[in-house]
């Protein structure tokens, strides 16, 4: 690592690629001869409109997004989407949700404010340590959509295959695994992601929505203008001043991923990166993973010693060793390493070495 940077295992905001940060640094005071920073320029200027259009173009190429899907850049981050989704998609006032952890629960709680929510499957019975088997689950005939959190940041589970929604649109919160692997967008009605985990600075959500799901005339007129998907779709994400800086940095990350070889290449790197950490947890006498092997996330790796005081000692020692944010989420405790796209393999290898040495010293 350069410039005294630490290995930051935060679940978000998280690490960004150093190459992107260096490019942003060069352009900070004067973006490509414009004489100003992106943070200063008008969102109505041609310079910024070019930034926005280029970012959308690169994202479409990365994900092979079909032409009948809109890409929206919306302020408010991920939490706002918990409300925007049911506000805009609950045509019958009914939706099916799968409860796989902390963020699913928040989405369910918010959706209940706007209609009937059917929790058609849950993994809460085993502390959200697995993804439910959906093969025998029936989707409600009157449901407007089926909602999943495709990667649970806090609990460390991920969907290895998508559920059969029996003809209903699939809505997926991809925040903590967005752009970490190839994605067949055509299998979804709507994908949304808070960008601060894997793509850019906080304060922005990217929404990819099939055009037929964008309601206009039949949407409740009480829905605030800014919280309507059609507002953003019809104005090219420029209805008001967007999060220009976050869009700019995300655009840089999109180009970085394309240069790397696209999402196929990124997925291979992520698999190779996570493997040594999970291998260590599987052989360790002190540490253990908290997720069933078949449902493990490549992005968020929760683990524990089983002892709160010992977990705390690991966190303290990790800070002294140059690692940051290994403490588990306050709702579940333990430890967690978030190893998003920008985390280099060297960082994971160094973490494994640290944990191995910690274990050897404490088991003497």
Describe the protein's architecture and organization:
This protein has helices spanning 18-27, 46-63, 77-89, 102-111, 229-234, 244-260, 262-283, 308-320, 345-362, and strands at 7-8, 69-75, 94-99, 116-122, 146-149, 151-152, 157-158, 170-173, 190-194, 204-210, 288-289, 300-304, 323-324, 335-338. By secondary structure, the chain is of the alpha/beta class. The protein has two domains: 20-259, Aspartate Aminotransferase, domain 2 (3-Layer(aba) Sandwich); 262-362, Aspartate Aminotransferase, domain 1 (Alpha-Beta Complex), CATH 3.90.1150.10. The protein has a seven-stranded mixed beta sheet. It has a three-stranded antiparallel beta sheet with strand order 11-12-14. It has a two-stranded parallel sheet with strand order 1-13. Helix 4 links the parallel strand 3 (94-99) and strand 4 (116-122). Helix 2 packs across helix 6.
């Amino acid at each position: 690592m350069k410039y005294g940077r630490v290995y930051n295992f935060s679940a978000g905001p998280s690490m960004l690629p150093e190459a992107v940060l260096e490019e942003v640094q060069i352009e900070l005071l004067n973006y490509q001869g414009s004489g100003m920073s992106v943070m200063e320029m008008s969102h109505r200027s041609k310079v910024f409109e070019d930034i926005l259009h280029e970012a959308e173009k690169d994202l479409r190429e990365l994900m092979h997004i079909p032409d009948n899907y809109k890409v929206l850049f919306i302020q408010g981050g991920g939490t706002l989407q918990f409300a925007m989704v049911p506000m805009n998609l609950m045509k019958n006032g009914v939706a099916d949700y799968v409860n796989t952890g902390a963020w699913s629960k928040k989405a369910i709680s918010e959706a209940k404010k706007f209609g009937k929510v059917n929790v058609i499957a849950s993994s809460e019975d085993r502390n959200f340590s697995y993804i439910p088997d959906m093969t025998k689950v029936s989707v409600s005939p009157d449901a407007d959509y089926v909602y999943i959190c495709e990667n649970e940041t806090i609990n460390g589970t991920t969907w290895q295959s998508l559920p059969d929604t029996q003809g209903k649109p699939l809505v997926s919160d991809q925040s903590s695994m967005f752009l970490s692997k190839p994605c067949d967008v055509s299998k979804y009605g709507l994908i949304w992601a808070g960008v601060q985990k894997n793509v850019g600075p906080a304060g922005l959500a990217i929404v990819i929505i099939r055009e037929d799901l964008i309601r206009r005339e039949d949407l409740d007129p009480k829905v605030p203008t800014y919280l309507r998907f059609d507002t953003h779709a019809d104005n090219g994400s420029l209805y008001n001043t967007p999060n220009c800086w976050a869009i700019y940095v995300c655009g840089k990350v999109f180009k970085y991923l394309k240069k790397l070889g696209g999402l196929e290449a990124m997925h291979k790197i992520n698999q190779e990166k996570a493997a040594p950490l999970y291998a260590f947890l599987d052989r360790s006498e002190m540490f253990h993973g908290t997720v069933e092997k078949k449902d493990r996330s490549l992005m968020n790796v929760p683990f524990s010693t089983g002892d709160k005081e010992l977990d705390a000692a690991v966190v303290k020692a990790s800070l002294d060793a140059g690692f940051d944010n290994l403490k588990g989420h306050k709702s579940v405790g333990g430890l967690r390493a978030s190893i998003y796209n920008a985390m280099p393999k060297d960082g994971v290898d160094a973490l494994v070495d640290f944990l191995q040495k910690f274990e050897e010293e404490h088991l003497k």
